[in-house]
Write a structure and sequence with these properties.
heterodimer; A: 287 residues; alpha+beta; Alpha-Beta Plaits; three-stranded antiparallel beta sheet; 7 strands; B: mainly beta; Immunoglobulin-like; 4 domains; twelve-stranded antiparallel β-barrel; six-stranded mixed beta sheet; 11 helices; 13% helix
Chain lengths: 287, 762
C-alpha cells in the first residue's frame, strides 16, 4: 500500500518540481520575506504564483523565498508587490496595515522591516487639525544640521534664548559653552563642502562667542551676538536640517539685524521683552 | 578680518543670486514648482512679472507598445507646471507650433478678464496653427489651479498642466504637485463616437481586469442576482456605468507612478492634487495615516482630517500628510472610481509602504440600488432622503470597505443607509465638511435664482440641462451687482462635476457665512445642491459639466453679463457663436456588417443628439433569398429618448422562382416581397426590457409592427439578437465579441435562412 502511495506521489512530486523548469527565461532570486508559520508559507507562495510567470518557495526558518520568474513576462517587483498585498512585508514593500491585520492570529509576524514612526499619525492629529502652518511636533526628528555640527546649533539657540530672556549672566555662560563646543567639533566625517564652510566659520564663531562671554552688559552681548548670524547662516545653508531653521529679521536694531531661530514665532533676542515680537521671517532654511 | 568678512558676504550674496537666477530659470523652462516651494527667499514686495513661453506641438508617444498621437507643451505631457506668486503679473506666451490644428488654453479657476479665459469662439480667438497669443493678467488669488485646452478633445491626450500660485509671504513648507490624468490608446474622437452608439467595448475591457463589469446575465446568475438584472432591464437600463471610458493607464504627473524621495521622516508635506483627467473620478488614499484637507479648488478651507476623499474631474485639493518614519516611502494612491486602475505617488525614500487597495465594486448591489431609485418614466426617486453635498453616497452599497464584502448591504440602517461616515470608521470627505476660514457672505444685492435639472441618458449619450444642450438654448443674461443663485438637481444616472468659469461660487452647505468657495461642484444622482455667486465681472462665462465627453455633448450653459461691450477678440460675433455651438451638434457615424455565408446583414447610422439617419440591409447572395434595404430618418423625443419618429424608404427584390408569392401579414393584408419600393412613416419606442417596438405604415397602406432587441449580454462577450414582426419575418442571432471591431456571428433569418459569418463594427 505504501509503495502504491509513493508510486502515485512520486510522479506528482516530479510534476511539481518540474514546474519551475517550465518557466522560460527563468530568473531566480532569494528574497527576505517576513512571516511566521506554515500557513504563511501557503499564503506567500499562493500570492507569488502566476501560471507561466512566477512562483516562490518560502522557507519559514530562514524567512526567505526563492522566487523564480519568467523575466520576459514579469519582474521581481511585481511578485513582491503581490506578496505584500497578501499581508507580508518584504525587502521591497511593506504590506498595507489592513492586509496585515487581516492575517490569521498565528500569521501576525513581527514586522521587522517596518521603521519606527517618528510621528504617530495620532500625535499629529490635533496639531495638524488646528495649527497646520507650524513646525513638526516636538517628537519629530531632532534638528541636526549635519551630525557633527548639531551641538553648535544647540549651543547657539541656547544663547539666543538667554538673550530673549534678557539674562546677561545666562548669556555669558552659554556663550562660553558655545565657544567650547566649536572647539570640540571634529572635522573627520565632514564632506568637502561642509568642511570648506566650517574652516571659514570656525574661527569667527569661537572668537565672537568668547567675546560675548567676556561681557557683563547685555547690550554689549547683543551687539556681538548680531555678528554671529553671518557665520551661523553660512553653516546652516551648508547643512540644512530636515526641520526648518528660520532666518529672522529685526528692522530696528542697529539699522537692521538678523538672527536664526528654530521657532517660527518671532522672539526677538535684541530687545527681549521690550519688543518681543518685533521682526519677521526672512527665509526658511530646510533640507 | 575685514577682508575675510567681505569675502564671506560676497559668497552669501553669490548664493542668493544663484537661487534667484535658478528660480528664474525654473520659471522659464517650466520645471515643476516644488523646488521653489521649499525655500522661497522672501524678497521685496514689488510686484513682478513672471513670464512663461509655451509651445504646443503634436507628437507621437508610446506608452503601451502602440504609437499614438498626443499633444505636448515644451515637449512635456502633462504640460509644465506654471508657478507664480499672488500679486504678480502672469505673462504667458503661447505658440501653436502644430501644422494644422488650432488650439486654446483655459486658465482653470483663475479670476481674469473674460477675453483671456481661453474658451475658443466664446471668449477668446482660437490659437490657429502657427499663431502666437500672449496672455497677460494680474494674479489676484493664490492656490492650486490648472490649465488645459478647451478645444475639442485635446485635453484628453496631453493638454493639461498644473498652475500654482503661492501666497505672498507664504509660510514655506515642503510641498509636492500631483496632477492626475488618464491615457487611452483609442483616439479621443473614437471614444466619443463609440459612446454615442451605446457600444460597451469599454466595459468588456474593464471586465478583463475587474470581472463583473459588463454585468451580463451570466455575471448576474453567478452573483445570484438574476432578478436584479431583470428588474434593471425592465426599467430600461443598460449595465450600470460607473465611468464611461476604459483607460489603458492612469498617470501621476504623467507617469504610471511618480516618486518624491526628497521628503524625510517627521516632515509634513503639502500635496497639491489636481484631477486633470477627462472623465475619471479618483479616490485618494494614503499609506502614512490621515490626510488633512486644507484647500479645495485653490481656496483655503478649515483643516479637516479624513481617511479618503473623491476628486471630481477638474477639482483640486490641497492636503497635508506626514511622513511617519525614515527610510520608508509612503504610497499616496489615486484609484479610478470604477476601481479598474490606480496610480501612485511615493512620498519619501526607502522601503515602500503600501496603502490598502480599494476592492472591486459590488456591481449588482449598485444595480439593486438603481432599481430602487429609478421610476418607470426614467425619473429618479430619492425616496424622501433629500440628498445633497455628497453626504448620502448611494454608491456605498458597492464599496466593500464600507458595507462589507458581500450580501449585507440590505441591513436596515434607516436614514444612514447611504451615509458612509455613519456606516464605518473610515472618514470620507463630503462637501458638508468644508468650511471657509473667513466669511464668504455675498454682498447685499438683488438675487437672481435659477433651477437647473441635469438630465441625460446613456443609451444615446445625450447630456443636457433641462433636456436642452448649449446649442439649443440662449445665453443666460445676468447683471453686474446681483447675486446669482443656482439650484441644481441631478435627475440623471451619473454624477457630474459642474464647473463655472471666472467666478467662485459658495456651496450652500450648512456652514452659514463660512460656506466654502469652489469652482467645481460634484453633484451625484438625485442630489439637490445650491450654489451662489456675486456677479462682479463682465462678459461671457461658460458653466458646464467637466466630463469632457459630456461637455462636448452639450451639457452646459453660458452666462452673459448684460451690457457687455463687443469682444474685440471675436470681431465676427455671430460666426464665432455658430462655431462655438457646433461642438454639441456633431454627427457621428457607425456601421456594422455581418459577412455571413447567406449574405450581408448590417446597419449604419449617421446621427447627432436628436436626429438619426439609419439604414438596415439584408443582401442575400442567392436570388431567392432576396435583397432588402430599409432607410429612414427621424428624430428622438424626450430626455430618455425612448421615442424615435421617422420616415423613410424600403426597397426589396427577390426572385422566388415563379409565382407571385403573395404573403399575408398578421393584419390580414397581402403583399409581395419579390419587388417592392415604397415609402414609410412610423415610430420606434423602447419598451421595458429594452425591447424596441417599431410600428409603421407604408405608401401602399401596409401596416407593420415589429419587436426587436439586439445585444442582449448573455455573457460578457456572447450577445443575443432577437427580432420578429407582423410580416411573419423573424431573426435570431448569436454574436461573440472578440474586440472593438471583430466578432463572429451565427443567425437564422426567416428570409435568408441560416448563416455564419464575421461581423465587423465601426
Amino acid at each position: 500500500m505504501k509503495t502504491l502511495l509513493s508510486l502515485i506521489a512520486l510522479p506528482a512530486l516530479l510534476a511539481f518540481s518540474s514546474c519551475s523548469a517550465q518557466l522560460k527565461n527563468a530568473h531566480t532570486a532569494t528574497v527576505r520575506i517576513d512571516g511566521d508559520c506554515p500557513m504563511c508559507e501557503k499564503t506567500i507562495e499562493k500570492a507569488a504564483y502566476v501560471k507561466g510567470e512566477a512562483e516562490a518557495d518560502w522557507d519559514v526558518d530562514a524567512k526567505t523565498a526563492r522566487i523564480t520568474i519568467d523575466s520576459s513576462r514579469t519582474d521581481m517587483d511585481a511578485v513582491l508587490l503581490r506578496i505584500a498585498h497578501a499581508g507580508y512585508d518584504n525587502e521591497r514593500y511593506l504590506a498595507p496595515d489592513a492586509a496585515y491585520s487581516a492575517l490569521p492570529g498565528c500569521c501576525q509576524y513581527e514586522r521587522t522591516f517596518q521603521r519606527k514612526a517618528m510621528t504617530t499619525p495620532g500625535a499629529t492629529t490635533d496639531h495638524s487639525a488646528h495649527d497646520y502652518g507650524h513646525d513638526a511636533p516636538a517628537t519629530a526628528a531632532p534638528q541636526t544640521a549635519g551630525e557633527v555640527i548639531g551641538p553648535v546649533f544647540d549651543a547657539y539657540f541656547a544663547l539666543k534664548d538667554a538673550l530673549v530672556a534678557s539674562d546677561a549672566q545666562m548669556a555669558a555662560e552659554r556663550s562660553t559653552a558655545l565657544s567650547a563646543v566649536v572647539k570640540t567639533v571634529t572635522m573627520e566625517g565632514m564632506d568637502a563642502s561642509l568642511h570648506t564652510v566650517w574652516m571659514q566659520v570656525m574661527e569667527p564663531l569661537a572668537n565672537i562667542s568668547a567675546g560675548i562671554a567676556s561681557k557683563k552688559d547685555i547690550e554689549a552681548q547683543r551687539k556681538s551676538f548680531s555678528e554671529l548670524t553671518e557665520p551661523m547662516y553660512a553653516l546652516v545653508k551648508a547643512r540644512p536640517g530636515s526641520t526648518p531653521t528660520y532666518l529672522d529679521h529685526c528692522p530696528m536694531y542697529e539699522g537692521g539685524a538678523d538672527w536664526l531661530s528654530r521657532d517660527k514665532a518671532i522672539r526677538n533676542p535684541f530687545y527681549g521683552a521690550q519688543m518681543m515680537s518685533c521682526g519677521s521671517v526672512k527665509e526658511t532654511i530646510v533640507k | 578680518m575685514d577682508l575675510l568678512r567681505m569675502i564671506r558676504t560676497l559668497a552669501i550674496l553669490a548664493t542668493l543670486l544663484y537661487l534667484v537666477l535658478t528660480g528664474g530659470v525654473f520659471a522659464q523652462s517650466g520645471i515643476p514648482g516644488h523646488a521653489l516651494g521649499t525655500s522661497t527667499p522672501d524678497g521685496s514686495l514689488t510686484p513682478r512679472t513672471t513670464r512663461y513661453e509655451l509651445t504646443v506641438r503634436d507628437t507621437i508617444v508610446n506608452y503601451t507598445g502602440k504609437a499614438r498621437k498626443a499633444f505636448t507643451v515644451n515637449g512635456r505631457m502633462p504640460m509644465p507646471t506654471l508657478t507664480f506668486t499672488e500679486g504678480d503679473t502672469a505673462e504667458i506666451v503661447v505658440h501653436n507650433a502644430m501644422e494644422k490644428e488650432e488650439t486654446s488654453l483655459h486658465w482653470h479657476g483663475l479670476i481674469l478678464p473674460y477675453a483671456l479665459d481661453g474658451v475658443p469662439y466664446l471668449t477668446t480667438a482660437p490659437i490657429k496653427a502657427g499663431e502666437t497669443q500672449v496672455y497677460k493678467f494680474p494674479l489676484v488669488q493664490s492656490g492650486t489651479y490648472w490649465y488645459h485646452s478647451h478645444t475639442k478633445l485635446q485635453e484628453q491626450n496631453g493638454m493639461h498642466g498644473a498652475l500654482i500660485i503661492h501666497k505672498r509671504n507664504e509660510e514655506p513648507m515642503p510641498e509636492q504637485v500631483l496632477i492626475l490624468s488618464e491615457w487611452t490608446d483609442m483616439k479621443p474622437f473614437e471614444v466619443h463616437r463609440r459612446l454615442h452608439s451605446a457600444n460597451d467595448w469599454s466595459a468588456i475591457k474593464k471586465h478583463r481586469i475587474r470581472p463583473g463589469t459588463v454585468q451580463s446575465y451570466s455575471d448576474a446568475i453567478k452573483d445570484g442576482a438574476l432578478g436584479v438584472k431583470l428588474t434593471n432591464e425592465w426599467k430600461r437600463m443598460n449595465a450600470m456605468d460607473v465611468s464611461d471610458v476604459y483607460y489603458d493607464l492612469l498617470f501621476a504627473n504623467g507617469k504610471p507612478m511618480d516618486e518624491a524621495p526628497q521628503f524625510k521622516a517627521g516632515e509634513r508635506v503639502r500635496v497639491r492634487l489636481i484631477n486633470g483627467g477627462a472623465s475619471s473620478y479618483f479616490w485618494i488614499t494614503y499609506a502614512g495615516g490621515k490626510m488633512t484637507v486644507v484647500a479645495s479648488d485653490g481656496i483655503d478651507v478649515e483643516p479637516v482630517e479624513v481617511d479618503r476623499f473623491i476628486m471630481g474631474i477638474a477639482e483640486t485639493y490641497d492636503i497635508i500628510v506626514t511622513i511617519p518614519a525614515d527610510s520608508t516611502a509612503y504610497e499616496l494612491v489615486a484609484t479610478s472610481e470604477d476601481r479598474v486602475r490606480s496610480t501612485s505617488l511615493w512620498l519619501g525614500s526607502g522601503i515602500r509602504q503600501l496603502a490598502a487597495p480599494l476592492q472591486p465594486l459590488k456591481y449588482f448591489e449598485g444595480m439593486q440600488m438603481m432599481n430602487d431609485m429609478m421610476k418607470m418614466n426614467g425619473d429618479l426617486d430619492d425616496m424622501g432622503m433629500n440628498m445633497s453635498l455628497q453626504q448620502m453616497d448611494m454608491n456605498v452599497v458597492m464599496y466593500p470597505e464600507i458595507t462589507g464584502a458581500k450580501e449585507n448591504a440590505h441591513e436596515d440602517h434607516g436614514n444612514d443607509r447611504y451615509n458612509s461616515n455613519a456606516l464605518s470608521d473610515i472618514v470620507t470627505l463630503n462637501y458638508a465638511m468644508l468650511r471657509s476660514p473667513t466669511s464668504t457672505a455675498l454682498p447685499p444685492g438683488p438675487v437672481k435664482e435659477m433651477r437647473f435639472e441635469l438630465t441625460g441618458n446613456m443609451n444615446r449619450y445625450l447630456w443636457a440641462i433641462d433636456n436642452k444642450t448649449v446649442s439649443e438654448t440662449d445665453r443666460i443674461l445676468i447683471r453686474k451687482g446681483e447675486n446669482v443663485r443656482i439650484i441644481l438637481y441631478n435627475n440623471s444616472m451619473m454624477r457630474h462635476p459642474m464647473h463655472l468659469h471666472g467666478h467662485f461660487f459658495r456651496v450652500v452647505n450648512g456652514q452659514g457665512d463660512h460656506a466654502p468657495l469652489k469652482n467645481v461642484l460634484d453633484i451625484m444622482p438625485m442630489e439637490t445642491d445650491t450654489i451662489e455667486f456675486a456677479a462682479t465681472e463682465t462678459g461671457d462665462w461658460f458653466f458646464h459639466c467637466h466630463i469632457l465627453y459630456h461637455m462636448m455633448s452639450g451639457m452646459g450653459r453660458v452666462f452673459t453679463y448684460e451690457g457687455t461691450a463687443p469682444n474685440p477678440a471675436l470681431p465676427d460675433a455671430k460666426k464665432a457663436a455658430r462655431i462655438f455651438a457646433r461642438d454639441d451638434k456633431e454627427w457621428h457615424f457607425m456601421v456594422q456588417n455581418d459577412f455571413a455565408t447567406n449574405g450581408l446583414d448590417g446597419e449604419a447610422m449617421y446621427m447627432n443628439k436628436r436626429w438619426n439617419l439609419q439604414s438596415e440591409w439584408r443582401l442575400g447572395y442567392m436570388a431567392e433569398h432576396g435583397q432588402e434595404v430599409e432607410t429612414h430618418f427621424g428624430r428622438y423625443f424626450g430626455k430618455m429618448q425612448w421615442l424615435f419618429v421617422n420616415a423613410g424608404l424600403d426597397w426589396r427584390t427577390r426572385d422566388a422562382h415563379g409565382g407571385g408569392d403573395l404573403e399575408d401579414n398578421l393584419f390580414g393584408q397581402t403583399n409581395t416581397k419579390n419587388s417592392r419600393s415604397v415609402g414609410h412613416i412610423g415610430f420606434q419606442y423602447t419598451l421595458p426590457m429594452l425591447l424596441v417596438f417599431d410600428l409603421r405604415i407604408d405608401t401602399d397602406g401596409q401596416l407593420r409592427s415589429q419587436l426587436m432587441r439586439e445585444d442582449i449580454p448573455l455573457t460578457p462577450r456572447l450577445r443575443l439578437d432577437l427580432m420578429g414582426n407582423t410580416d411573419l419575418e423573424y431573426m435570431a442571432g448569436l454574436r461573440y465579441v472578440f474586440d472593438k471591431t471583430w466578432a463572429v456571428r451565427t443567425h437564422y433569418d426567416s428570409d435568408m435562412g441560416f448563416g455564419v459569418g464575421v461581423a465587423v463594427t465601426y
